[in-house]
Specification:
mainly alpha, globular
């Protein structure tokens, strides 16, 4: 593994990766370790949502995958942005309204759909910076 492709990439990609790694760490802690409903859970949950929003909004400045796209340089992966915005809103709404099933659905969808699934696809199936970081020949 090498960080060279990431270190040579744009500020948007670097910030995107930092936000997603931190969101993955916080989300993993929240889902598998933290007691639900505690003050710490609420605080880390706010941090998780903030990191997810940063990750999604910063991705709008990433145009390396399809710079000549008819949609202002946006690729198919940018379809995750509105999905993350909606799921984040549902997670907040569910928590505030004590609709725990809605909250749980939104947060689990954010974690597994936007972080785990997309991360694995980016690393193993899509040629790009993520794939280069893990499989680049030295």
């Amino acid at each position: 593994m090498t960080l060279q492709p990431l270190l040579q990439s744009s500020w948007a990609i670097q910030l995107h990766v930092v936000a997603l790694v931190l969101a993955w760490l916080v989300g993993t802690w929240q889902l598998f370790v933290m007691r639900r409903g505690s003050t710490g859970h609420r605080t880390l949950g706010q941090l998780f949502i903030a990191l997810m929003l940063v990750m999604a909004l910063v991705s709008l400045f990433i145009h390396e995958r399809s710079p000549n796209s008819a949609l202002f340089g946006l690729s198919v992966m940018h379809l995750y942005v509105p999905l993350i915005l909606v799921l984040s809103a549902l997670a907040i709404l569910g928590a505030r309204a004590r609709r725990l099933a809605l909250h749980r659905f939104a947060v689990i969808s954010l974690y597994f759909g936007s972080l785990v699934f997309t991360g694995l696809v980016q690393i193993f199936l899509v040629p790009g910076i993520s794939h280069q970081m893990f499989f680049q020949q030295r």
